[in-house]
Amino acid sequence: MAKRVLPGFLSALLIIVILVTGIFGFAVLTDFMHLGRLLKVVSYIETQSINPVSIAELVDGAMKGMVESLDDPYSAYMKPKAYEELTAHIKGTYGGVGLLITIKEEQLMVLSPFKGTPAHKAGIAAGDIITKIDGKNTKRMDLDEAATLMKGEPGTEVVLTVSREDVPDKDYSIVREDVNIPTVTGEMLELEGNKDIGYINITMFSDTTGHDLEKVIADLKDEGVKSIVLDLRNNPGGALTAAVHVSDLLIPEGPIVHIKGREGSETYTADNEYLGLPMVVLVNKGSASASEIVAGAIKDTESGTILGETTFGKGLVQTVFSLGRGAAVKLTTAKYLTPDENDINEKGIVPDVVVEMDPEIEQKAVLTAPNMEIDKQLQKAVEIIEKEIK
Fold first, then answer.
1. Is there a common fold for 94-180 and 184-388?
2. What's the helix, strand, coil split of the chain in %, to 5?
3. DSSP character for 304?
4. Structure confidence by residue, pLDDT tens digits, 212-240
5. In the chain, where are the structural domains located?
6. Is 287 helix (H, G, I), strand (E, B) or coil?
7. Which residue is catalytic, options 300, 303, 330, 380?
């Protein structure tokens, strides 16, 4: 049987080779759709360039260039590492130690350990300076490199050398775990007269954000909450489905967002089960994408007061397409409109109440929120709510 199949297989293979060779030859001779030039460039790089490069690297470069030709800052060809990091953020989990970090005076400083994570259980605290990661000096190290070094497969170990005021440097051997990124936090504001105002902060929109918000709202209701300050400042966005879920919890029945793509349009709608409490939403120029979907839905339905500064203005939707072998391409596939069909792309959402802050004070206020002492936007939000619930 094999002897009869093999000649046919070889004949088919020969035909394919002839066809491909013919097509390439035709492309080179005619420069059909610039393919001739493309093949010549590949040939010259292979035979003349002093810098050797593999065919795989050339193909990666070509794909990256094709996406860049769209002149769209939100579309990108993603190599496996970038795709893996994006997937982790959208899922809301990653393998690591559970630290929120920043740069202070060229040093790596811990803003906060996420509760219950390996770093938290090891005793690393806010304000600690990480001087080394696995023996590598972190002086002038950027955040991306530091985060990459601390991430890894659950069960593997990383050694953090930590400096604390008036305490000698100490090595912490920490075993990485699957870390759930907390995207929603909530608490009752400590105010004179106990106004029963709850504060909710959403830092980004992952697959778990909607369910996390449900739990936070339930906990605040148990504490007797009567009104809400929702903080979306410096929230860069995330998953569209999470923004829809969050909006559904905060606005009455009706449209949440209209998505308009090449193949038509789609409208996401809310049901009639929602929070229904007086609400002020804090936004700034760092509020983008999915956070603007939520802010736009609340503004158009008059479910709350938008306060702060005009938002970033990203009214576009990206879709990620897997290419296999860990790579992917992210393309802008649609634009979104608010419930009243306002296009906010490159315009942003203008607050109902404009309260601007000095950038340095604003950064500190957002990082330490809720901070009634220095946060003018939060102060104004409380003032508005107090008038509303009298």
1. no
2. 35, 30, 35
3. S
4. 999 999 999 999 999 999 999 988 898 99
5. 94-180, 184-388
6. coil
7. 300
Task: For residues 270 and 344, give the distance between their C-alpha atoms in angstroms, rounded to a whole number.
Answer: 20
In eight-state DSSP terms, residue 114 is P
Active site annotation includes 289: yes
Q: In 38-89, where do the E strands start and end?
A: 76-78
Residue 10 has pLDDT above 50, yes or no: no
Number of H helices, E strands in the chain: 11, 19
- Per-residue burial over 237-263, b if 16 or more Cβ lie within 10 Å, else e, is bbbbebbbbbbbbbbeeebbbbbbeee
The predicted-structure confidence for 67-108, as pLDDT tens digits, reads as follows: 999 999 889 999 888 888 788 778 877 899 988 887 888 899
Q: What is the pLDDT of residues 31-49, one digit of tens each?
A: 555 677 877 888 888 888 9
Burial of residue 379, with CB atoms counted within 10 A of its CB: 0-12 exposed, 13-18 middle, 19 or more buried: middle
Element (H, E) at 186: strand 184-188
Taking the CA atoms of residue 216, residue 218, residue 223 and residue 226 in that order, the dihedral angle to the nearest 10 degrees is 90
pTM above 0.85, yes or no: no
The domain 94-180 belongs to what CATH superfamily? Answer: PDZ domain (2.30.42.10)
Is 314 marked active-site? yes
pLDDT one-digit tens code per residue, 138-189: 998 888 789 889 999 999 999 999 998 878 899 999 999 998 878 999 999 9
**54 has a pLDDT exceeding 60:** yes
Specify the fold of 184-388: 2-enoyl-CoA Hydratase; Chain A, domain 1 (3.90.226)
Q: Catalytic one among 75, 206, 227, 289? A: 289
One-character DSSP codes across 259-282:
EEETTEEEEEEE-S----S-EEEE
Q: Is the CB of residue 253 less than 8 Å from the CB of residue 271?
A: yes
Active site residue 136: no
